[in-house]
Amino acid sequence: MAISWRLRSGLSVLRRSFTAGNAPAVERGLAPRALLCSSVSTPAFARNFASSPPEKELKVKVPIKLFGMSGNYASALYIAAVKANSLDKVESEVRTLVEAAKQSPTFSQFMKDLSVSADTRSNAIQDICSQAGFSDITRNFLVIAAENGRLRFLERISERFSELSMAHRGEVKAIVTTVIPLPLEEEKELKETLEDILGEGKKVILEQKIDPSILGGLVVEFSQKVFDISIKTRAAQMERFLRQPINLDGF
What we know:
The longest helix has 18 residues, at about 1-20. It contains ten helices and five strands. Helix 3 packs antiparallel against helix 7 (about 135-145), helix 3 packs across helix 8 and helix 4 (about 85-105) runs antiparallel to helix 8. The two termini are about 45 Å apart. It is α+β, with helices and mostly antiparallel strands.
């Protein structure tokens, strides 16, 4: 009962903060500083993933600007996958390989070992893709990553690619941190509240995290914003307030 009351109280504050045009309790940017690799041109890079370019090239714009090496690879893969109308398939295939690496220490070490020649890495990846029945887009992407020694960053590239795929589908990932798991009804209520705040037909994909250190309440992260109404944060705010010097000049 107490948890339910705290959640409803928090949702009420969350809704008022956004409908009134105010900023949430804490706001921070999640995108890293721009580290674009000048040697990689994303549109041209994306064309390398396609087995044969169409006669009239489709113009594709990434829904989110990503930076750094992983962002470049993810953006290029996204463009190629959208042009081939195989975004979901490519996302699933890349994720499958990432999970395979997690399950196999030998395969994981192979992906990280730069002492293995580029040809050996490339041939091995082509064999794996053929056996798994991966699409040409995924195979070509993985071969390029293997040749350039980027397979060791595949998990991060996959995560960035999923960000683009979710944005393409109108999905927004929200992370809610609580002391204990939210009951289904409260999880549903939180999800509906966030979707109402985001509007425009956005679909919230809710991920729960358990962190006893916040003591109670909840922390919600979505759309590069953080709304923190945890007991830990409120206690810290109260402590700072109590430590402020008292002005007795008027007495």
